[in-house]
Design the sequence.
């Protein structure tokens, strides 16, 4: 990550910052955790397969040290011995190796998870720069690794000294044992000493894992300005978002205006509000709103309606009630059915009268019956 010349990195890394770091191969890893899991898996494998290995070694020793005189001078016997060694010891050792491989993989991905990054594989000039190399050699990270190496060596050395001191007499007594007892005893000592010695590394792991998590988080921390810039890049600049919203409103308004010529009636207030109502039994059981607006939008709706000979009815309370309670393409509330029915009946009678098929309808009253909860 690029370092800023100014600004304190006091902010926790955002989700996008963490994702970008993973894409670059920057995840929290603990080498000590991987090393400890490998050693402990090997120790566990020896503990589980130790008796089988001890028996296999006994069979090999018996086969090697009990040759007759003819077999000693037969050069082909060397290949037979190697066959015995492979058949007796090879399979137990192969199982231990498979166990180590599986546990080593799990141990290395347990912190930071699985991550494959092509960006981390790309060559970088900074990695080949001698100056950058010296900075890494004498930097804080190098000092931390040196301290860990010294601590790890000290812990293992102290553990090894204590184990050898404790088992020293038992090791000396191995020379007095006879086959196959000495082999089993030696492997038993070896397994337990190896397990205890590997367990001493856990002291380093317990310290290193939290440190690696903290250090990784510290490296990815951001300044307040970086957080603001990332928010702008992710969410968009306020002026751009405002422009997008404006364009969306204009597009929606154009679509709405295109529906006005299909209206049966325009209910107005008479200047500030305008609501276009359509009644289509094939589409809806009740009248629904196909356009609405206030002030300039209301003026535009009336203008389009006049151009297409759509009836305009002045009913201020009804226009306000429909505007505030009904969304576009939504049926009018049940409480307004009576008032809207009066308006539609008047409009349909007016159409018949204009065609010369009936009497001139009586104008509807300006104050239709509007429930109190729907008045605005």
Sequence:
């Amino acid at each position: 990550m690029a370092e800023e010349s100014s600004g304190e990195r006091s902010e926790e890394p955002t989700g996008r910052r963490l994702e970008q770091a993973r894409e670059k191969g920057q995840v929290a890893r603990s080498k000590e955790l991987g090393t400890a899991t490998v050693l402990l898996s090997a120790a566990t494998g020896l503990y589980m397969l130790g008796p089988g290995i001890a028996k296999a070694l006994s069979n090999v020793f018996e086969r090697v040290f009990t040759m007759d005189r003819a077999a000693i001078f037969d050069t082909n016997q060397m290949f037979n011995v190697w066959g015995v060694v492979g058949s007796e010891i090879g399979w137990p050792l192969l199982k231990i190796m498979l166990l180590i491989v599986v546990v080593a993989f799990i141990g290395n991905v347990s912190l930071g998870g699985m991550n494959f990054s092509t960006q981390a594989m790309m060559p970088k000039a900074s990695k080949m720069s001698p100056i950058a190399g010296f900075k890494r050699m004498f930097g804080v990270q190098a000092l931390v690794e040196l301290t860990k190496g010294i601590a790890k060596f000290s812990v293992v050395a102290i553990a090894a000294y204590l184990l050898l001191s404790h088992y020293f007499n038992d090791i000396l007594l191995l020379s007095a044992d006879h086959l196959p007892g000495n082999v089993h005893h030696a492997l038993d000592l070896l397994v337990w000493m190896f397990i205890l010695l590997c367990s001493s590394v856990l002291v380093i792991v317990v310290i290193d894992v939290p440190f690696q998590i903290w250090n990784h988080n510290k490296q990815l921390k951001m300044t307040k300005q970086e957080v603001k810039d990332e928010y702008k890049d992710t969410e968009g600049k306020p002026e751009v978002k405002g422009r997008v919203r404006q364009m969306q409103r204009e597009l929606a308004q154009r679509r709405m205006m295109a529906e006005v010529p299909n209206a049966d009636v325009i209910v107005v207030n008479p200047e500030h509000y305008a609501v276009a109502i359509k009644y289509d039994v094939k589409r809806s059981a009740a009248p629904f709103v196909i356009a609405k607006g206030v002030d300039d939008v209301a003026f535009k709706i009336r203008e389009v309606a006049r151009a297409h000979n759509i009836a305009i009815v002045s009913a201020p309370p009804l226009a306000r009630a429909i505007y505030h309670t009904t969304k576009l393409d939504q049926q009018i509330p049940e409480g307004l059915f009576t008032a809207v029915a009066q308006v539609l009946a008047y409009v349909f009678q007016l159409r018949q009268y204009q065609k010369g098929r009936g009497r001139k309808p009586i104008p509807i009253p300006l104050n239709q019956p509007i429930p109190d909860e729907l008045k605005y």
Q: What stands out?
A: The chain has 15 helices and four strands. The first strand starts at residue 265 and ends at 268. Confidence is low (pLDDT under 50) at residues 1-6.
